Amino acid sequence: MRCGPLSVYDASPPLAFDISTAMNPDASLPWYREISKPQWKVFLATFFGWLLDGFDFTIMTFVLIDIQNSFAVDRALAGGTRYGDIALSTCGWTGRGYGCRSVGT
Question: Is residue 24 part of a domain?
Answer without folding.
Answer: no
